[in-house]
Amino acid sequence: MSTADRLIESTQDLLWERGYVGTSPKAIQQRAGAGQGSMYHHFSGKPDLALAAIRRTAEQMRATAEACFSASGTAYDRIRAYLLREREVLRGCPIGRLTMDPDIIADPELREPVTETLDWLRARLAQIVAEGVERGEFDAGLDPERTAASVVATIQGGYVVARAAGSTAPFDAAVQGLLDLLATRAPRRPAP
Amino acid sequence: MSTADRLIESTQDLLWERGYVGTSPKAIQQRAGAGQGSMYHHFSGKPDLALAAIRRTAEQMRATAEACFSASGTAYDRIRAYLLREREVLRGCPIGRLTMDPDIIADPELREPVTETLDWLRARLAQIVAEGVERGEFDAGLDPERTAASVVATIQGGYVVARAAGSTAPFDAAVQGLLDLLATRAPRRPAP
DNA sequence: GTCTATATTCGGATAGAC
DNA sequence: GTCTATCCGAATATAGAC
């Protein structure tokens, strides 16, 4: 792997763990096994490197989610698969956490991939719910946009309560609570 | 207001806005209109002051929530009131955001009020759901713990998606989505 | 109780040699 | 491309005068 790649990967890790404000160029260099000069040769500075790292993380997150969304099964099944997919719950969401970083939110360029990713996620879920309603897999009364927003919020908030508790239990409970509620709105489809 | 109080209040604001890592003693002093010596006279350092601030914020948050919980109405009504209560959505949750602060999570003393507050919130909501089920205000099948976890996660995650979007809309949608789902499980109670 | 001076380390970067 | 030297201001305090 190239030095630039190692720098980006180290930055991804540190942003996930400590956020933007809590991540120093020196820490990045040490984790990547690269010197100062090397870092400033490949990137113009901390914001530039952070941007590359955030973009890469966003891309990976979309790919992981899309794998669940495009699987086979009913709308409910696919949403369920997404909610229950394996996660490193106690590390939190590498994109969602950036939302609490004032320097990220204040900088339009750094913020853009964060906004973009969570917007995409909601829209994609809304699309799946809408499909489900159309096919009779969900009750007609279920609002796609609202439901999608609830799914994303449950995940993001699940990370928060899990980290507060120091345990994945509250995350799992929140997800199960939502699935219980959603299941009620997913009638067994009558055989054709 | 005393100097110590102004220092605590300034710290509350800054922790909310910038987190622990992003908040410097100097910034606190300036906002409070106090000098270095003054701050170090009243508090042993940044962690000590932060602890006082976090405890105060936690106390205020519990009081605000309890006002909704102890109001009159059915269990659904009270949960609804809590979900819809006025919030400064784009500022996020002053307690929940600390969850992403590595230095807070790593320090048991600083972390304790955060854990405590969110644990209390979930337990209190579970109690309300359980009451509702008992009184027939909610379906018998509704799991109190899971449902409570979903409510807290929806709020916490709602803040995340709202900050990402730069708009309160996703927060409101997530809350409405959850309320839609919950309403289905709250049958109109037959007149006695 | 509050102020000013001083100290140490870190954050974030530039310059120039190799 | 990578390394070392150097720079300047901020972060987080301590010491001692008033």
Automatic annotation (TrEMBL), chains A, B:
Pfam families: TetR_C_13 (PF16925), TetR_N (PF00440). It comes from the Bacteria. Residues 24-43 bind DNA. InterPro entries: Homeodomain-like_sf, HTH_TetR, Tet_transcr_reg_TetR-rel_C_sf, TetR_C. The keyword 4Fe-4S does not apply. Residues 1-61 form the HTH tetR-type domain. Keywords: DNA-binding, Transcription, Transcription regulation. The keyword DNA-binding applies. SUPFAM superfamilies: Homeodomain-like, Tetracyclin repressor-like, C-terminal domain. This is TetR/AcrR family transcriptional regulator. It comes from Streptomyces milbemycinicus.
